[in-house]
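Feature request disguised as a bug report, sorry. It would help if multi-protein outputs had a clear separator. Right now it looks like this:
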Amino acid sequence: MSQRPAGRPLRPAALVFDVLDTLFPLAPLEWRFREAGIPRVLMARWSAHLLRDSFALALASGGDPGGSGAPRPVDRSFEDVARGALRDITGHQIAPSAEDAVIEGMAGLDPRPEAAAALLAARGAGLGVATLSNHDDALPRTLLERAGLLELVEDVLAVRPAREWKPTPGAYHAAARSLGVPPERLALVTAHGWDVAGAGAARLVTGWSSHLEGRFPPVFAPPDVSGRDLAETVDGLLALSG
């Protein structure tokens, strides 16, 4: 576990956990790809494609190049983006039934082995605990309930519309408002460097678990706390003073 020496972040009053690939690994979806006849190597491309399109939607929906000043709302759901990415990486050759199987398989993901311990540690320390995702609350709620973790979180926060998806500041600020804490007293726990970058820009305390990426992306400012897994990351956040 390590802490960023500069900045002196305060001990958070609440934590929000990212869901996909943080609490719930996506890797088990590989067999769904194989069953659909999609090479397993394309799963990483699908994930990257999904993120790319999510970020583009969040950015593109905030302004009007024609000069009228009216926003251009982009009403897309996370599932829309996930399905679109599947079609793109397969050259639009994926059968509807195979597409459904991959998307529906996301609801059957299992949590990381230390996920419960991390959530329990935060709750036991008296912190508010929630999840924060770029989709409606149905999928994360289903995952948490199936894993027996739903009772360990106070809220399942969903970022809508697309123009406020993470990593835009509005996503993190809305989470802080929902939990009744100022941004600088809310911590994000995530396995994604881009999520750390967004939360840090929104003045949140940041905790990064290295279980997914291994090394933190050097293009971003480092997290306030990092750990080898979720439990170690939460322990580091709880050890902050203030």
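(second protein starts here, but nothing in the output says so)
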Amino acid sequence: MLTIEQVFEFMERVLAEDRLAGNRAGLKNTQTAAGFLMAAANYAGDRESARRFRVLAAEAANKHEELGGDE
């Protein structure tokens, strides 16, 4: 069974790969997914996971913006 820690590891890896590749669509997808999972963690009362997903979403959004946003 997939663990929350594996989800974090996967998202961190994909975020790093998309940063290096300049993949704006991938960064936007990671931002959206992290935001969705942050909401789920908040709903479940898991503040630490929600915080980690919020950080991932912010990192993806910041890098996406640096690369030109939705141009």
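Even a blank line would do. Unrelated, but nice: Residues 42 and 50 are 6 Å apart (CA to CA).
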